[in-house]
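dude i think i finally got it to work??
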Amino acid sequence: MTSDAQGIAEEPRSVLSLALPVVAGSLIGIIGLQFLLLRDRNPQALDELALGPQTTTYWSKVESNPIHCGMKTKQFKNCLDAYIQNGKQRDVVLWLGNSQLHAINQFSEGDKSASFYLHNILRDKDRYLFTISIPNANIQEHLVLFEYARQHLPVKTIVLPLVFDDTRETGVRENLQSTVYQPAIKDRLRETSIGKKLIDQCEISVVSDDERQVKDKTIQDQSEEYLNDKLASYSGVWAKRADLRGNLFVSLYKFRNYILGINASSKRRISRGSYVINLEALKALIETAQHANIEVLTYIAPIRNDVPIPYDEDEYSNFKEEVATITRNAGGTFFNLEELVPNENWGTKKSTGLVRGPEVDFMHFQSEGHERLANAIDESLQTLWSNKY
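look at this
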């Protein structure tokens, strides 16, 4: 190597040249974060990704009393308090489900969901409908919610929709893991093999925010909390970092869909491992309920059928046959309501890709569809109860 080359190689870089990439990267990051905030001032939760501006979340109330809740502890407590105050110790019909139960497509003022209509129907028959629904709920999570609900309520009947697409999901989401570790629920879950698997899958050290006292927090925890509060007071971007993280994942999800050409109508094959575990959970739920003298009604959830459905037809047919067999063999009652809601009661949803524009919605329908579903469930329950008595 020549002396000139050595001189060039050894020439030190200036402070400015060293700092420039960091400064430029920071500016690009800040601009990107601001863009994510501005592009969606009402960021969509990841587990509500299937919803959009055309579909409205609706939690039913009757005479200002909440009768339909989601996965939040406060929501459940409010619904439980409403039952204690107004239920008059009536037998509870527990309706579990996914976003189909708490979402109304093309919402108009005065629209109601199926849980509202069915609650009023059953109230006149001296029964109390208590509804819990969470987005994309898999059957393993329904098993946990069933145990959670019957710990607090005199559940006598369970109504459970079966959605093929939700069998692709597996495990218990973080928000429900603390429920798994409640002693009474944990003991009951241990009575089934699938329950034991769910316990093993959840983190052992699950502590809710309400249970965690300041005295239990380390100096590092307290320092981070202090700094986060201070930064949030000075920076809107920092205060909304959770929303930004959600927006980022949603954007990546849409980019993935764009690259792979995936949209709401794309065929989705089953995930065999998740599918088997969910059907195991279905069998355990029904058998556990039967042992507790709790009746079970399962049904194939309505799906739009004026366009090709986004499932492999053979896999979907097998699914319907399998869940029907599992339900009946375990002592439950099964109905197929997939064609219940007419085509004119379905709508569209926000695009799941980068290209703007509405997509066909296969899961959520208008208020008229909700009323039809409530009436169909009532008829199915009457059939169940008439056969028993």
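The radius of gyration is 25 Å.
im so relieved honestly
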